[in-house]
Recover the amino acids of this structure.
């Protein structure tokens, strides 16, 4: 029997129906979700509740190409590492990193041959970027969100360092390392050239980012989330509590690397959001840094942080839809 087309609603429904009912209940509907550039993502309803009591789940399928651009070559191995780290976070060595206000989806089923991952449905919530861009958030809540996220990363990096001997081989995500090096460090020179930077400076940028890219690719200090930005944080608000639940999703590029990369990526995104959308979000960022315990006296740590922070602004600001003003972007 041929494999159904797992990039379609019908194909996903056929695939899930073919699984033993001991793995998952009978699926009833599948609807592809918008957003994301790499995977084909669906919300599926079932005829019986899953482990969390819900009748819905999110199903991710990876192909060897991008969702919208099939000329982009992607390794499907990335999904294996997402399944591994989510299993550790929800039922293994990393459970202590989570809190009542920091959650990750439970993995229900993973099929490496079909590149299908079935996850707990976190709900249809705004991501943190949208949440902060479209409303006035009280300073107290901003500080609470920042503290929760900083505390989570501190716990993740600490446990990852403590359990390195047990986990580094299991989570040595070389695919992710190469993706980050290519998309961020190797791309910086091209971005500088595109914005009319002097050729001598472009050459200097290429040399510097080539060296720093190799350094972070080789680094295996601790476990990092790897793509820690507001778009991967879903905000579930509560009518009776000022503190929302924050769902951290999309863990495909988690890996052992330098922890400053997580802090720098998130910080660069929040600083951009402060500049273009919501200046008050600086309260979130200050609380995030304080909760994590960023030590500005550590020159080596700050060097990795500073380079990644600057490269993130250079590479992503122009393509993230913040503004169409070329002068401001430059």
């Amino acid at each position: 029997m041929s494999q159904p087309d797992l990039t379609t609603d019908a194909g996903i429904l056929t695939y899930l129906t073919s699984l033993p009912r001991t793995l998952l209940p009978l699926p009833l509907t599948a609807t592809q979700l918008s957003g994301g550039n790499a995977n084909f993502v669906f919300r599926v309803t079932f005829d019986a509740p899953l482990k969390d009591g819900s009748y819905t789940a999110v199903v991710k399928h990876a192909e060897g190409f991008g969702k919208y651009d099939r000329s982009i070559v992607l390794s499907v191995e990335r999904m294996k590492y997402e399944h591994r780290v989510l299993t550790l976070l929800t039922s293994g060595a990393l459970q202590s990193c989570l809190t009542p206000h920091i959650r990750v989806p439970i993995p229900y089923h993973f099929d490496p041959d079909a590149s299908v991952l079935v996850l707990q449905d976190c709900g249809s919530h705004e991501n943190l970027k949208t949440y902060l861009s479209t409303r006035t958030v009280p300073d107290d809540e901003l500080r609470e969100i920042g503290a929760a996220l900083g505390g989570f990363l501190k716990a993740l990096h600490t446990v990852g360092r403590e359990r390195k001997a047990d986990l580094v081989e299991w989570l040595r995500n070389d695919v992710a390392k190469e993706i980050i090096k290519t998309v961020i460090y190797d791309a910086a020179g091209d971005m500088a050239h595109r914005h009319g930077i002097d050729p001598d400076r472009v050459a200097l940028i290429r040399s510097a980012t080539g060296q720093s890219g190799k350094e972070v690719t080789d680094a295996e200090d601790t476990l990092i989330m790897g793509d820690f930005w507001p778009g991967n944080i879903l905000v579930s608000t509560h009518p009776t509590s000022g503190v929302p639940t924050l769902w951290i999703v999309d863990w495909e590029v988690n890996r052992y690397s330098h922890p400053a990369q997580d802090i720098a990526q998130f910080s660069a995104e929040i600083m951009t959001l402060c500049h273009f959308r919501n200046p008050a979000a600086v309260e979130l960022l200050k609380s995030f840094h304080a909760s994590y315990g960023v030590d500005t006296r550590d020159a080596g740590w700050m060097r990795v942080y500073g380079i990644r922070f600057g490269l993130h602004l250079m590479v992503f600001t122009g393509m993230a839809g913040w503004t169409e003003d070329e002068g401001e972007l430059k």
